[in-house]
Specification:
The chain is mainly α. The protein has nine helices and two strands; from the N terminus they run ααβααααβααα. It is elongated, with a radius of gyration of 24 Å. The chain binds heme C (HEC).
Length: 249
C-alpha cells in the first residue's frame, strides 16, 4: 500500500509556514464572529445576539422599519444619546411627517450619520441627507434583498472554499482514525453550503434561522477542530516514529 504523508514527514520550515497560516485562520475566525455580533446584535430590540436577530436580518420584521432596525441594532453606537434614538423612533411611529423631520430628526442625522451616509463619503450605504431618502427607510423591513444575498453568497463560496480546502489539505496529514478523518474533512463544506442555503430559506420563513445558526456553528466547530488538531500534531511529537530522520529544511 502506498504510504501517505504525515506531519512527521514535513520539515520545520513547512511547519512554521503551516502554523502561521492556521493561526491566521483561527484569529480571522474570531474576528468574523465579532463581525456577526456587531452587524446583527440588538435588531430585535434586546441587547446581545439571538436567533431572533438573525431571523430579522434575513427575513425582516414587518412591524419594524429598516431605519428602526438599524438604530436599534448595528447603528445604535453612532448615536450620541439614547434620547436621540427615542426622537427618531417616535417620529417613525407618528407617521414620519416632514415638519418634525426638519425640526428634530434632520439635525441628529446630520451630526451622527452623514459622515458615512452621504454621497460625499463615497461609501455604498443609503444617503440620509434629505427627507425623501430617509422616509424610504421608514417602510416595513423586508429583510435581506436577493441581490445582496447573491453578492455575499458568491464572495463566501469563493473565499471560504479556499480556506476550507487549504486547512483540510493540512488536516489530512494528522494521525487519527480514518473514519473520523473522512467524516471531519467534509463537515466544514457541508456546514458552509447549508448555511448559505439557509439564508434564502430564512428570508422566506424566519424559523430557518435555527438551521442557519446550527450549520454556521457546525462549520466553525469542524474548521477549528481541524486547525487545533493540526497545530497540535505538527509540534507535539506524540505520534512520530522514533527511528525516522528529520527532513533538514
Ligand atoms: C462610520 C460610518 C457610519 C455611520 C456614522 C453610520 N452608519 Fe449606518 N451604515 C454604515 C454601513 C457601513 C452600513 C452597511 C452595513 C450594515 O448594514 O451593517 C450602514 C447601514 C445602515 C442602514 C441600513 C441600510 C439598509 O440597507 O437597510 C441604516 C438604516 C443606517 N445605516 C442608518 C444609520 C443612522 C440612522 C446613523 C446615525 C445614527 C448611521 N447609520 C451612522 C455606516 C455608518
Amino acid at each position: 500500500m502506498r504510504s501517505c504523508q504525515r506531519f512527521s514527514d514535513i520539515s520545520i520550515s513547512e511547519r512554521i509556514l503551516n502554523s502561521f497560516f492556521l493561526l491566521s485562520i483561527a484569529i480571522g475566525y474570531l474576528f468574523s464572529l465579532g463581525q456577526i455580533y456587531f452587524s446583527h446584535q440588538g435588531r430585535d430590540g434586546n441587547p446581545g445576539i439571538s436567533v431572533a436577530d438573525i431571523a430579522i436580518a434575513y427575513h425582516g420584521s414587518p412591524e419594524q422599519t429598516r431605519l428602526a432596525a438599524a438604530i436599534n441594532g448595528p447603528m445604535a453606537g453612532n448615536l450620541k444619546s439614547a434620547a436621540d434614538k427615542t426622537v427618531i423612533l417616535d417620529w417613525i411611529e407618528s407617521g414620519a411627517q416632514p415638519a418634525i423631520y426638519e425640526a428634530q430628526v434632520a439635525p441628529i442625522l446630520q451630526r451622527d450619520c452623514q459622515i458615512c451616509h452621504s454621497p460625499a463619503s463615497g461609501m455604498r450605504v443609503p444617503p440620509l441627507t434629505s427627507y425623501e431618502q430617509v422616509v424610504k427607510l421608514t417602510e416595513a423591513d423586508r429583510g435581506a434583498s436577493i441581490p445582496s444575498l447573491i453578492r455575499v453568497s458568491h464572495i463566501h463560496l469563493f473565499g471560504i472554499a479556499f480556506i476550507l480546502y487549504m486547512v483540510g489539505k493540512l488536516f489530512v496529514l494528522c494521525e487519527i482514525p480514518v473514519w473520523l478523518k473522512r467524516l471531519t474533512i467534509g463537515l466544514p463544506f457541508l456546514g458552509m453550503l447549508t448555511d448559505i442555503f439557509a439564508w434564502y430559506l430564512t428570508r422566506e420563513t424566519p424559523s430557518f434561522a435555527y438551521l442557519l445558526v446550527i450549520s454556521g456553528a457546525l462549520m466553525g466547530l469542524s474548521l477549528n477542530f481541524q486547525v487545533l488538531l493540526s497545530l497540535y500534531q505538527m509540534w507535539i511529537p506524540l505520534h512520530w516514529p522514533s527511528n525516522r530522520t528529520e527532513p533538514n529544511d
